[in-house]
Give the backbone structure.
Amino acid sequence: MPNQSFSLTLASEKVTKQFASRLGHLLRSKDIILLSGKIGAGKTFLARALIQSLLTEHEDVPSPTFTIVQTYKTTLGELWHCDLYRINNSEEIDELGLLDAFGSTICLVEWPDRLKALQPREALGLHLSYTRLSDTVRNLEVSWTHSRWNEARTLQQTERSHALSR
Ligand SMILES: Nc1ncnc2c1ncn2[C@@H]1O[C@H](COP(=O)(O)OP(=O)(O)OP(=O)(O)O)[C@@H](O)[C@H]1O
Ligand SMILES: [Mg+2]
């Protein structure tokens, strides 16, 4: 299957939150989302909004920068939120149990480049980047190869129709 992708402008924190909860509606129990982008691009912000949209009661969602993995019980089952920034080799990835978590829990992974060849091909990729427009505008590239994610195109359509109605 060839690479599929589309880009969106996340014009404010509010739009990022809306995108995250729309994506939350598409998620299934074993999905993997790889969140890439520079420091401060908004990976944790988007992941937090996504996780909170899947919780029955409000819970703080801290950045996993120091703990590396934070786990949540969501309406779709267990979810792991990981930040691999400080991971240096595949032994450390093994110790985390992340490869077992892939395929058994929902996984949201920041800094997925640390996985190198272990990056799961069935994942949805979200790449956030700064724009020159403003401090609160981000570009988001959504990409995938697995047909499971073809329905992610609906997120593009929804965003467009929102943009048109503003
Ligand atoms: N449109 C936007 N979408 C997401 N975040 C935004 C947006 N506009 C401003 N921000 C701000 O950008 C910051 C993003 O920080 P965040 O911790 O999510 O970055 P990160 O990509 O996870 O960085 P790190 O690599 O250090 O983990 C937050 O303070 C957030 O409020
Ligand atoms: Mg982060």
Notes: The first strand starts at residue 4 and ends at 10. The chain has a mean pLDDT of 93. Helices lie at 13-26, 43-53, 90-96, 98-101, 153-165.
